[in-house]
């Protein structure tokens, strides 16, 4: 891995995008490494939560690496978006392990799209977020037009994308784009604290909850039906047996993750 760092702290993994001289911009190699990193962590049953952040104090991810696609054809552009969504953005959204974006500075273009593909977001008070693609004569291609509207509403998404403007962390919190805002020095501590709470719960149930929540945003899928199915399936897990037994015995559950 040349562009990302992975650190494990007990049941929590921290993925750091490490291209500080490029403000952690996403190029093809970084997207591929992130895919491989997330895939490996998701398969590691000892990892119960993942935090993704950027190296340095300036940027989470300042955007995509424009030099890679400035001369692309129509066909190449479409393939770039499709492959990126498959490898990283859709992949992260549908990961069964919870992923928290710790937005530690600029999250622009592909950077904001990555943050939005995570299950939720926290931000430092110096963070700035936006989708500036129309200034380049293109539109967001890694799910930005869809996820931003889902998270902040159609009108605000239209304005942000059309003006290519940036919003600060407090505005992002007011819009519902991020859950919490803290000083940068406290960001990883906050994210780790939330992740620690997650790790104490049933990883099997959390994976089923992620699937059910995501189903609400999929065309042709009835989210209520997915919820009913996954609720029923939960009754056949060892985690359910442990959780209910621990409750009745008035002790803390020790979930096996099965």
Explained architecture:
Keywords: Lyase. This protein is of the alpha/beta class and 258 residues long. The protein has two domains: 4-199, 2-enoyl-CoA Hydratase, Chain A, domain 1 (Alpha-Beta Complex), CATH 3.90.226; 203-248. The chain is 46% helix and 17% strand. It has helices at 28-43, 74-93, 110-117, 144-152, 154-163, 169-175, 187-199, 203-215, 223-234, 238-248, and strands at 4-9, 12-17, 49-54, 59-61, 99-103, 106-108, 120-124, 128-130, 166-168, 180-182. Helix 1 packs parallel to helix 2 and helix 2 runs parallel beside helix 3. It is globular and about 60 Å long. It starts with a strand and ends in a 10-residue tail after the last helix.
User: What's the story with the biggest beta sheet?
Assistant: 6 strands, mixed
- By CATH, the superfamily of the largest domain comes out as 2-enoyl-CoA Hydratase, Chain A, domain 1
Widest sheet: strand ordering: 1-2-3-5-7-10
Order of helices and strands: EEHEEHEEHEEHHEHEHHHH
Computed over alpha carbons, the radius of gyration is 19 Å
How many domain modules?
A: 2
Q: CATH topology of the largest domain, which one?
A: 2-enoyl-CoA Hydratase, Chain A, domain 1
Tell me the total number of β-strands: 10
């Amino acid at each position: 891995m040349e562009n990302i760092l992975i650190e494990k702290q007990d049941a929590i993994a921290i993925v750091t995008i490490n291209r500080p001289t490029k403000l952690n911009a996403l190029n093809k190699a970084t997207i591929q490494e992130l895919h491989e990193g997330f895939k490996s962590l998701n398969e590691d049953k000892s990892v119960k939560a993942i935090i993704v952040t950027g190296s340095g104090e300036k940027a989470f991810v300042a955007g995509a690496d424009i030099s890679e696609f400035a001369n692309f054809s129509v066909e190449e552009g479409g393939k770039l978006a499709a492959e990126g969504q498959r490898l990283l953005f859709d992949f992260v959204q549908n990961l069964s392990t919870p992923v928290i974006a710790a937005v530690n500075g600029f999250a622009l273009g592909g950077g904001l799209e990555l943050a939005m593909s995570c299950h939720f977001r926290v931000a430092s008070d110096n963070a700035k977020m936006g989708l500036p693609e129309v200034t380049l004569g293109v539109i967001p291609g890694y799910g930005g037009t869809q996820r931003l509207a889902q998270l902040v509403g159609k009108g605000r998404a239209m304005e942000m994308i059309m003006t290519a403007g940036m919003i600060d962390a407090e505005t992002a919190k007011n819009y519902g784009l991020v859950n919490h805002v803290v000083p940068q020095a406290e960001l990883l501590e906050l994210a780790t604290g939330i992740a620690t709470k997650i790790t104490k719960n049933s990883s099997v149930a959390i994976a089923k909850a992620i699937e059910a929540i995501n189903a609400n945003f999929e065309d042709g899928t009835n989210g209520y039906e997915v919820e009913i199915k996954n609720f029923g399936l939960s009754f056949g897990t060892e985690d359910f047996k442990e959780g209910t037994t621990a409750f009745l015995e008035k002790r803390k559950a020790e979930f096996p993750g099965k």
